[in-house]
Amino acid sequence: MELYQKTVFELSRLMNSREVSSVEVTQSFLDRIKEVEPHVRAFITHTPSMALETASLVDKKRLNGDNLHPLAGVPLAIKDNISTGGLRTTCASKILENYIPPYDATVFKLIKQVGMPLLGKTNMDEFAMGSSTENSAFFTTRNPWDLEKVPGGSSGGSAVAVSTGMAPLALGSDTGGSIRQPASFCGLYGLRPTYGRVSRYGLIAFASSLDQIGPFAMNPADCALLLELLAGHDPLDSTSYPGKVPGYVSSMEERLDGMKVGVIKHSNEKGFDPEIKDAVTKIANLLEKEGFAIDQVEMPRTDYGLGAYYLIAPSEASSNLGRYDGVRYGFNGGGDNIENMFSRTRGEGFGPEVKRRIMIGTYALSAGYYDAYYLKAMKVRTLIRQDYETAFKKFDILIGPTTPTPAFKIGEKADDPLEMYLSDICNITDALAGVPSLSVPAGMHSNNMPFGLQFTAPPFCEGRLFNVANYIYRNRDPLLPERPPASFRKGGTE
Ligand code: GLN
C-alpha cells in the first residue's frame, strides 16, 4: 500500500515512530497529484515547494524531540475561498484572479501552527455559488468515478482531492450544502459543523449567517481529528462559539445503544432516486439491530427551505460582494469615470451565476420588497429552526439522503439554475437551522456512482455524528470500493 492510501491516523503513527518522514509522506501525495490531476483538475494553485518546506521543518522538530500535534506533518488541501496570507486566493473568480491576501484565515493559522503542509488551493464554484464546480471562472473539476460527471459543489475540488488520494484531508465551506453534496457525489466524509463551531475569519464571505468551514476525510476518525483542530472560539469572529471543544475522536468510543434516530420524511420525494431511498431504509435497519430506536420524523416546513435559502443567501451575498469595486483590491476593468469603472469591473469580473445572485438579493432587499421577500424568508427560517428543535426533543439524531440523486452529467443542469438549486434540496434546512450535518458514504448506485446519507445532530453535537458514522464505517461492505477506479472512467453507464 502506498503512503497516499493510508489513513491520517496511520500516517501520524508512522511519522511518530519515525518509520517515515513527513517529507516522504508529502512527496507521496505530490506524486499522486502529478498522476491524477491532469484527469480531474481539482486544484487552482499548486504549492509543492511550500508543502515540502513545512514537511522538512516538521521532520527536524520531530528529530529534536519536540512535542508535536497528531496532525503535524500530515498534508492537506484548502478550498480557494479560505485566505492564505501571501498566497493567491481566487474564490474561482476573475475578480480575485490575482488577489493575494495580506493575512491568514484563522483555520489556516491553526494549520500552520501544527505544521500541516499545504498541497494547494482547490477549485470551486465562483464565490461558492453552485453545486457542480461548473461555475468556476477557470475550469470544471471532474468526478473521478466518471469523468463526464460533476464532482458536486461548491467545494468540488476539495472533495476530489481527498477521494482520489491527492490529499489525505481537505477543507471546504458549506453555506447550503457545499461540503456535504460533493462528499456524497465523490464517496467520502464531509462535515458541515454547527454554525459558530469553526471561525469564519478569513473565509471570503458568501452569506455570512450561513457560511461554515468544515473538513473532508476518508473516514470518520480522520474527519473528527481535523475538526478538533479547527473548532474553537476566535476573538476575530464574533459569531464563533466560546464553549469548550470536546474530544471528537474520543467521543467515538461512547456507547450508542438506546439512541433515537429520526428518519426524515420528505413530503415530496418525487425526484428521489429509489436506490438512495432504499439505502436509507437499509442503514436504518442496521442501526435498529444495534439497539437504536428508529421512527419517522416529519419536518413540515422543509418544503419552504429552498425558497427561503434562495432569498436569504443572495441577499447577504449582494451586500457582501459590494466590496468588489476595483478600487481596493482585485480586478479593475478600467474606464474613464468612476461609474464606468464600477460597471466594467463588476460586469467583467463576476460570472453569470454571481450576477444572478446579486440581482436577486438586491431586489429582495430593496424598499417595498424587503417585507415581502427578505423578511418573510427570515420568518420561514425561524419556523424551520423550530422544526429542528421539536424533532430533537424526540430524537438524538436525524437521517436522510444527502442528495436526491448520484452525481449528474457535466452540462446537464448548467443552463437551468432552478434544476441546479434543486440538487441541494436535502442540504438547505440544516444550514438555515445552523445545526451540524455529516455526509457518510452509503454505497454504490447501480450506475457505479457513490452516494451518501446525511446525519444531522443538535447544535454542537458533532461527536454524536462521528460516533454513528464510525459504527456504519466499521460495518460497511468490504467489497465496495472506497476509492474511484485507478483507470479513470470516461462516459459511465446510466
Ligand atoms: N449550492 C448552494 C448554492 O449555490 C450551496 C452553496 C454552498 O454551500 N456554498 O448556494
Tally the structural domains. 2
CATH superfamily of the largest domain: Amidase signature (AS) domain
Order of helices and strands: HHEHEHEHEHEEHHEHEHHHHEHHEEH
The CA-CA distance between the termini, in Å, is 32 Å
Describe the global form.
globular
The CATH class assignment of the largest domain is: Alpha Beta
Unreliable segments of 5+ consecutive residues: none
CATH topology of the largest domain: Amidase signature (AS) enzymes
- Lateral strand order in the biggest sheet: 1-3-2-4-6-5-10-11-9-7-8
The number of E-state strands comes to 11
- What hetero molecules are in the model? glutamine
Please describe what this structure looks like.
The chain has 494 residues and is of the alpha/beta class. It folds into 2 domains: 3-261 and 393-474, Amidase signature (AS) domain (Amidase signature (AS) enzymes); 304-377, no CATH class. Helix content is 39%, strand content 12%. It has 16 helices and 11 strands. It has helices spanning 8-16, 22-40, 48-64, 106-114, 156-163, 180-186, 220-230, 248-251, 274-289, 305-320, 338-349, 352-365, 371-394, 417-422, 428-433, 462-474, and strands at residues 43-46, 76-79, 118-122, 170-174, 189-192, 212-217, 260-265, 293-298, 397-401, 437-444, 450-456. The protein has an 11-stranded mixed β-sheet with strand order 1-3-2-4-6-5-10-11-9-7-8, with helices on both faces. Strand 2, helix 4 and strand 3 (118-122) form a beta-alpha-beta unit. Helix 2 (22-40) packs antiparallel against helix 3 and helix 10 (305-320) packs across helix 12 (352-365). The longest helix has 24 residues, at 371-394. The two termini are 32 Å apart. The relative contact order is 0.14. The mean pLDDT is 95. The site of glutamine has 13 residues, from loops.
